[in-house]
Amino acid sequence: MAVVSAAHGRWRRTGLAVSALLAGALAVAACGPSISNDAGDGDALTLPEDFEPSGEITIWDRSGDLFQVFDTVIERFNEKYPDIKVNHLAVDIDAKLANTLISGAEVPDGTFIDDSQVSTLSPHLYDLTELLAPYEKDIVTQKLAVGSKDGRFYGVPWDLDPGLLYYRADVLEDAGVDPDSIATYDDLLEAARTVKEKNPDSYPIRLEEGAYLGQMWLEMFANQAGTNMTDEEGNLRLDSDEYRQILGWLQTVVQEDLGAKATYMDPTDLQRLDDGTTVFVPWSIWWDYVPQTVLTQTQGAWRAMLLPAWEEGGARSGAMGGSSFAIPKDAQNPELAWLFYEFLVFDPEGYQLVYGPNEIYPGGLNTSIPSYLPALRGEPLFDPVPALGDQNLWEIASQAANEVPGGVPTPSWWPSAVDYLGDNLQRLLDGTMTPDEVIESSTRDIQTNLVDRG
Amino acid sequence: MTLATSTAPGVVQAPPAPRRRRGRGLYRTLAPYLFVTPFLAFFVAFGVYPMLFALQLSFTDWRGAGTAQWVGWDNYLYLLQNPAFWSSLATSGALWLMTVPVQILVGTIAAVILNNTLMRGRGLARSFLLLPFVTPLVAMAQVWIITFDQNHGAVNAFLGLFGLPDIGWLTTTVWAKPTIALLFLWKTTGFAVIILLAGLQAIPGDVYEAAALDGASRARQLWEITLPLLRRTTAFLVVMQTLAVFQMFAEPFMLTQGGPYGSTTTAGYNLYKYIRVSDLGTGAANSFLLVVIVVLLSLATIRFLRPKD
User: Fold this and answer.
1) Second-level CATH architecture of B73-305
2) Distance from CA of residue B68 to its chain's centroid?
3) Which parts of the chain span the membrane according to its record (chain B) (predicted)?
4) Which of B151, B261, B277 sits opposite A423 (nearest CB)?
5) pTM, to two decimals
6) Is B70 in CB contact (< 8 Å) with chain A?
7) Are A35 and B68 in contact (CB < 8 Å)?
8) CB B53 to CB A98 under 8 A?
9) CATH topology of domain A170-320+411-450
10) Do residues A205 and A192 touch, judged by C-beta distance below 8 A?
11) In a 3-state reduction of DSSP, which class is residue B177?
């Protein structure tokens, strides 16, 4: 009995202690700080009338070659604005930006940002609508859409990433396929069948294996077909003829063994591209980085053309990826940061310095194109690309830019949708889901877990 | 030095001034607290406060900006009804089954062997066992990716020598979990061996001497003495490894990004997914649910492995 009583006593004491701890914790938590900061939608950035630009700004850019390219612009910017000192930092933006904006510590004056993040981070960013107004009519519509939220602009539109169809010119020539005959996705299927007949071991159309990139890839097709996961109000619209057509086309590729999955730039992917197993790569313009840097055996054999259309006479491109510049609300000198970005994006001297021949890219930067129409209408900013057989990629990309249909704002939950739509797309490519199942399952899960909890 | 000032008869020694004694007593009482104050301050600032803040966060819908909305138990209820949450727990549970029992078994055998004083090269063997534990996980995960690549990995190349087909070690739902479990085993079994060795060395030698005098064989000594007296150490190890498995993040992050199809999304990785997309309220609720589950599992382990003596 005594033992039992002691045990009871011990449990009672433990229970009381835990209860007290929980009660104390809740009490302290309730008295804790208000979980809020000054960030809220609607803070518009304007330039004062008597503005005299001088001071210091800190600009964050993604590390790597692009950082080096942006770095070269600062000297010329200072010729125009000698009293603005630019501290240009290479930062892992994906890892650091959100935390910095939330904590409010060491916030930069301006930062590079993926378009898909603009909506998520917009409460921390200046509304740039008024400053962008003079340029609005000259910006590609799709970029205005993805950089906005509730009709206000939060990103200075930087690069446009139109989709193109990359192909192996040598393999098509051997198989007797004329690339100019590929005007629709049905034509592409036919061309793939012809290549497969010639080489039964090939899987001519490249299918993306990564769930995140796969979802981006699907959204490129959808954008081309004039739709996207959501409408302007953020309502889901996966259940549509367009998605059924795209997913049905992908299912045909899988069922006829006309394509194989590969993860972007992994060893298998590169080997298939080099040995002729993969012949067609429908992807964003930035895929040209692959033949330019790593496809050692087939450099010069690749070419680019407009994407095939979903319907005869339909759009021949859709956007995949893209980035903007943002100015955080906690910036010390947001007006000066705007001047820097205005120079970089809208001043011919600025965008020519970045896209034109420079120290880092002697032939110019050709993995994207500007989203500013006067830049697209002017002289080519980068040279023909040797890895594409000296093809004039500028001309094709500019043409593709005109074909990209207008988009919609990217919902803040877009990256989380990868768990549903991205995964289900992979299941379809594995042959374990039908287009209808992908649409039904993804719609249900995204609605429940993301839209309703938005 | 002495405090006594007078020993003359008839002279009553004056007691120390009460004020002075009280001051010294107070000083003595407060001194320990004073010394631990810096630590306590840091602990409260970086341990207690963030925890309470996270607890508060778990009852809100806060995306890192704007005013937080108090949502009560919504985040918890959502998670408890969410298949992805339970799937992440099941994944952690499966990884636990694939790692911890194996580790205890292999670790105990290795520790018993290494505890033998007659064995040569014990120090070297212990160093080798600890090597994976001190190697950065990121580097090891990269080695794993190369080794287990479906098309160019060393493992499939080896299997190919025997005419066996390529296996998608990191790309199929069947094999991804065991491949991650193998990395965890390789990385942490050395740690388990060291803990178990410490436990073995804490067993008094005279217990074995008495058993030997009574004619107990080595196997009997192992079964009747070593294993029972290792229960406390084993319980500690199981608790530590349970914590590690349920918090496992870097392995799936590096090897599979939680895929394919979420099959390697562990409990720790699942909570990161909410934080990554700034759904801080749900992420905080997920972390507290995880705390509760791990505490319950640890208590159950301790109770199950409690020495019977």
Assistant:
1) Orthogonal Bundle (1.10)
2) 33
3) 30-52, 94-115, 127-147, 284-305
4) B261
5) 0.84
6) no
7) yes
8) no
9) D-Maltodextrin-Binding Protein; domain 2 (3.40.190)
10) yes
11) helix
For residue B267, what are the CA distances in angstroms to A95, A262, B104, B184?
Answer: 21, 28, 22, 15
Domain ranges of chain B: 73-305
Residue in chain B closest to A23 (alpha carbons) equals B52
Chain B residue numbers with beta carbons less than 8 Å from the beta carbon of A271 are: 151-152
Is the ipTM higher than 0.85? The answer is no
Pairing of strands A110-114, A159-160: unpaired
Of A29, A120, A266, the CB nearest to B56: A29
User: Coil, helix or strand for A367?
Assistant: coil
Contact flag B63-A40 (C-beta cutoff 8 Å):
no
The domains of chain A are located at 55-161+321-377, 170-320+411-450
Contacts of B273 in chain A (CB under 8 A): 416, 419
Q: What 3 state SS string does A253-290 have?
A: HHHCCCEEEECCCCHHHHHHHHHCCCCEEEEEHHHHHH
Choosing among A10, A35, A120, which should be mutated to test the B contact, i.e. which has the most B CBs within 10 A? A35
> Phi-psi region for residue A262, left (φ > 0), alpha (ψ -120 to 50) or beta?
beta
Does residue B106 belong to the interface with chain A, where contact is any CB pair within 8 Å? Answer: no
Please classify residue A271 by burial: count the beta carbons closer than 10 Å to its beta carbon, then call 0-12 exposed, 13-18 middle and 19+ buried: middle
Cross-chain residue pair A25–B52, CB shorter than 8 Å: yes
Helix (H) or strand (E) segment spanning residue B106:
helix B83-114
* B277 interface with A at CB cutoff 8 Å: yes
Task: Kindly determine whether residue A102 and residue B65, on different chains, have CB atoms separated by under 8 Å.
Answer: yes
pLDDT tens track, chain B, 309 positions: 444 444 444 455 555 555 555 667 888 888 888 999 999 999 999 999 999 999 999 999 988 777 788 999 999 999 999 999 999 999 999 999 999 999 999 999 999 998 887 778 888 888 888 888 889 999 999 999 999 998 889 999 999 999 999 999 999 999 999 999 999 999 999 999 999 999 999 998 888 889 888 888 888 988 888 888 999 999 999 999 999 999 999 999 999 999 899 999 999 999 999 988 888 999 999 999 999 999 998 899 888 887 665
CATH, range A55-161+321-377? 3.40.190.10
> Rounded to whole angstroms, what are the CA distances from A173 to A198, B29, B249?
11, 92, 49
B66 to chain A nearest CA, in Å?
5
